[in-house]
Amino acid sequence: ALERDLQRGRCSSDNANRSVKHKSISSCPSPSRVTTKSKAITIERLQAELNDRDDLISELKTKLDDNSDSETGDLKLENIRLKEKLEQTEQLLNECRAQLHTRTLQASAHNSKNHLSEVELEKVRSRLQKRIEELDPLPELLKQAEVEKEKLQKDIDELRKCLPLQSNFLAQSPGTDQTRQTRFSPNDDIRALQRRIVSLEEENQKLSKMLNAKDEELRNAQIRLNAKSYETTSLNKPNDLRRPDFKVREDTYGSKNHFLQKDTFDLEQQTSRLHLEHAQLKRERDELERHFTSQMNELREKLEQSNSANRSMQNYINSLKTTYATLFNDTLPTSLTRFAAT
Q: Which residues, including other chains, have CB under 8 Å from residue 275's CB and lie 6 or more apart?
């Protein structure tokens, strides 16, 4: 399209020159007056074309701003929902920890007459407490991931602020170092943003590996807890055979041990439910990151298209200046020097 416009400009200039020559031969008017009139017509046409290009750039900027605002609103809503989900998970984790502490105290009180069972349960409680302490940093890691997302959002906003600098190249000189720096700064920002995205993806992979390792350790702890419960039951059976005189006391202990096992089973169910909710939260976080990466790619493509359009416009204007200088072999009028600067 730019080449066709340039060709039409050249044809119109040639026609104008031929018309001027024909009139000069037929009517012999003043040559300087005909040249000035032809220059004025060409300059007005060039100015109209530049104004049309300015309107097109403004329309593209408006569309890009509207799309970015809608996408930013969706990201904010998704972040709010994830924060609420994270708060609910932390609250449930605190309740589970409190219930674990309460059940452990009850188990210690009920099994004070059986030293071996008390020691085994204390070991199991310590292992479970250690697993819970290892899971405590997970909410903090999720918060750090959200902070990284906020930083990326700020980078997007800064990148969007740099876009008007690119569209204002019509009012700046392309030969200065400052304009060159302004023209290439979005590319540097894109590369920095890509490095930030790669770093975030690596951190997400590390976090996923850590979550898988913690889940495996939690499953192993649950298996060992079931094994210790079975061993406790097995130890109670020989005691029933060797000490028939204490049948009533052992029946009471068996009833207490049954309640303890029931409480332990309830605690395991709560732990499993917490694990499922944590996995669901992780899947939602991964989905949000994929959606965010897709939006970032779209924004980069739009920015690249805008930069390409800016470069094309700059080349077109330079070619117009060269064509004008070639056709008329003269400088532009003083009233239009701002177009000559571009």
A: 215, 218
